Amino acid sequence: MTVPQTPTAPPTHPAPPTTAPATAPTAAPATTPTTAVAPAATTAQARRTELAAFLKACRARVTPQDVGLPPGPRRRTPGLRREEVAQLAGVGVTWYTWLEQGRPINASEQVMTAVARALLLDTVEHGHLLRLAGLQVALEPLLCPTVDPAMRVILDGLTPMPAAICNSRYDVLASNPAYDALFPGVIRGSAPDGRRNSMWCAFTVPDCCNPFLNREQEFPRMVGVLRASYGRHVGEPLWEAYIRDLSRASPRFRELWDRQRVAPATTVLKVFRHAGVGEIRVNASYLTMPGAPELYMVVYTPRTARDREHLEWVTAHPRAAVTDHEHD
To answer: Where are the membrane-spanning stretches (predicted)?
Structure first.
């Protein structure tokens, strides 16, 4: 989140569309009962529900002092009140309330940007908010798990630096020998359907056997990156099943997922452990692939010469145990 600037007066923004009411309605919008819900309607409702949860979580993270408002009397819940967000964004209180309730109302990009500004959202969070509001409708489907043979040559050439090609759901579509040696659990297909999925492996392996050492820093970031991608796929059956199953399998994942944080995929420090060499520190860099917006290549570059020696040893001994014990 960006460092807030304290304004001298609440910012003003364009008024919301004419469909946004300024006062409370006399009755709830009428609904037409149906015997079946069309897939498009189901997806739209799922997106509105996700938007409502995201807005509430973001509102709870902003204090009145962050946006130049007086603290006021004692608050029952953390963060801003709905009327304060509406005031800062220049929209009607009832309209914003309906937005947080997941009602089917119209919202322009201009108005949603005003809401994002009021909630002090950063660039990634702003984009996530717009997608959840249905303002970026050209959603890319998850690409089929196929990789250009030339990319496989590049992967192998990066050895002993571990590298893999993944999709936005953390499925590992291709990898080099160094990656396979460092993450044998991923290569064996740790997900229930046999998919090679690094997120599933990271969150379902017991801590004593988990190759990640800096889990407290990395796990929230990983889930944030996943949630940012999820914003483009809300309501899609494969994505919904993936999130549901992983939430059931890992209370830690479920807790982080419910925080509603989103994050960009940037170069970060990852610290691993291997029974054969001990600690390995690398920079994880994420490279986009032209023509394949849902795919990326992740490359682990060693931080020091000693880390490179450790990676070389691990790659040369692919059958060496990653941990010093096993579970039944």
So the answer is: none
